[in-house]
Specification:
The structure is a single chain. A 4-stranded antiparallel beta sheet has the order 1-2-3-4. It is globular, with a radius of gyration of 14 Å. It is α+β, with helices and mostly antiparallel strands. The N and C termini lie far apart (32 Å). It has one domain. Helix content is 45%, strand content 19%.
Length: 122
C-alpha cells in the first residue's frame, strides 16, 4: 500500500488528466478501493485461468481508471523487476510496481530503465 503526499497526488492527476480518476487510482493504491469493482478489471479477471495476484489486479485497475495504454513489464535475466502503467511516453509520471520491494511508486519508466542501465556499468 502507498500513502499519497499532495505532490504525488498532483503528479498522478497530471498523468490522468482527470482528478476523479486520480482519486480512484489513489484509492486503489491505498487499499480503499477494491480493484475487482472496476468494470474492465472485473471482466479481465473472469477471463483469467489462474487468479492474478492482488498487485496485478491493482495495476490493471489503475490502467483502466486512468485510461492508459496497458500494464507493461521490465525484466532482466528472466526476472520481472517492474511493472508499470504505460502512459504513452516513457518520461511521463506513471504508477510503477517494484517487484524487488513490493512497493508502488510514481515515476517515469524511462528514468528507471536509464538508472538500471547505469547500474550495469558499475
Amino acid at each position: 500500500m502507498m500513502t499519497f503526499t499532495p505532490q504525488m497526488f498532483a503528479d498522478l492527476a497530471r498523468t490522468a488528466n482527470d482528478p476523479e480518476a486520480a482519486n480512484k487510482a489513489a484509492g486503489l493504491l491505498n487499499g480503499e478501493v477494491n480493484p475487482e469493482t472496476i468494470p474492465n478489471t472485473e471482466t479481465w479477471l473472469r477471463g483469467c485461468y489462474h487468479r492474478p495476484s492482488r498487485s496485478n489486479l491493482v495495476m490493471h485497475a489503475i490502467n483502466a481508471v486512468l485510461d492508459l495504454h496497458g500494464v507493461e513489464v521490465i525484466e532482466r535475466d528472466d526476472d520481472i523487476l517492474l511493472t508499470y502503467c504505460n502512459a504513452g511516453d516513457p518520461y511521463i509520471e506513471t504508477v510503477i510496481l517494484d517487484h524487488r520491494t513490493g512497493e508502488y511508486r510514481l515515476g517515469s519508466w524511462g528514468d528507471v530503465v536509464e538508472k538500471l542501465g547505469s547500474d550495469d556499468d558499475d
